Amino acid sequence: MKPTKLGSSVSFIASALAIDDLARCRGAEVITRDIAIIGGGAAGTYAAINLKDRGKSVIVVERRGSLGGHTSTYHDPTTGTPINYGVQLHHEDSTTRDFYARLNVTAGPGSFPEVKTPLYIDFTDGSPILNYSIPQPSENYFQALHKYPYLENGIELPDPVPEELLLTWPEYMERFNLTNDAIATYSRPATPGDLTKYLALYVFNYLNTVLLEEQVEGKIIVNANGDLSELYRNALAELDSDVLLNSVVVSGQRGRKPTDGVKLCVSTPKGKKWIVAKQLVFSAPAVLKNLEPFSLDEREVNIISEFEGGFYYTGIVTDFGLPTNYSYTNRGQNTEYHIASVPGVVMFNPTNVEGTYYYWYNSFSDMTREQVETDTRNTIKLLQRTVTGADVSAEPKFPAFKSHTPLHPITSADAIRRGIYREVYSLQGYRNTWYTGSLLVPGSSQLWNNTNQLLPRIIAASEQ
């Protein structure tokens, strides 16, 4: 990854576009709020509800047709059964329980989604991986994790950064005698890219105490009716006209002083809207593509452009054609520790609807829905030919799909050495903008907690 050398040019071009787009937005309806929130995922929805509860007016701009971000729920058309195919559960803590209660969602006993007898198969040729199982991380892993408490709920690194954290994970395991944890750490399904290339820093940040408490101790809560999207539907009903769905920021201006505020031109299904706000909360993934309309200056471009990656997709498949008393997980037949091939399907997991599975797909580059579903279909047809009892005539159907790209963008060891994460934290409040997305923590519950801690500063800035 290379730092940009075009910061001032990009800023100049963006400013020119901003003037042009803002000019085209003149005459549009003006929406005046204390705080504008970009992105209606976990962090954005949490911020909107809690800011309103604290007396602040808000407007949420969400590019999709619903709130929820990485939370995706498909309802079986015959039975109405909800099937979550993105976020599967939440960490049990007071912030999560309070948010459930605030939105009138009944928390049920937590458990991981139904997993039937697992079959581990190389999805490139259909061969089974025999005598294979996935252990929990050992006490040695816990001891290593606890050496770096600043990675648990963010990436607030010391200066200098410990060099061992900038080793790749295979290098770290070898140096610190953790190779017995290779299978446990390489088997986390919701990690984009190639874990053998991940820095140790990211492994500890992702496979943190919160996630381990979920996996090992069962500290989990879910919606009692099984529909994790209800939380966001209830939030949408309450926020009502304070949410602009299927909408994107065309261009924006952000002042340097609190009194300068924020002005955004937003394209909505009902035409362009002007948003005039005191502060901006950016809850969408903080990557350059998403932030380009906001007239970034050179400092912002040079920081944000360091982050990339996170190509990940999920969906639902019916008419599966494989025996439904199994779950199917991709593992390499001839790779070290049986690491799965990328790009490709991560796994097919059964649901409460017989014959309906959800799948997750991992890639090194951005892909269209057609590309993901074509490759997923080819994988299923391969498995139909190699798994005993399969129906080779079954033709898979794909009623639901979602791109989760970019999922947890990352940066290089050199950028981290130079202090890129200190620079990220220094952006909080800069040009009246605050960042609450998943750049620093992976899970919804952690996003809620981190957003909650940031709200007093956002509110104070809005009152200057």
UniProtKB/TrEMBL annotation:
<dbReference type="InterPro" id="IPR050464">
    <property type="entry name" value="Zeta_carotene_desat/Oxidored"/>
</dbReference>
<dbReference type="Pfam" id="PF13450">
    <property type="entry name" value="NAD_binding_8"/>
</dbReference>
<dbReference type="InterPro" id="IPR036188">
    <property type="entry name" value="FAD/NAD-bd_sf"/>
</dbReference>
<dbReference type="GO" id="GO:0016491">
    <property type="term" value="F:oxidoreductase activity"/>
</dbReference>
<protein>
    <submittedName>
        <fullName>Uncharacterized protein</fullName>
    </submittedName>
</protein>
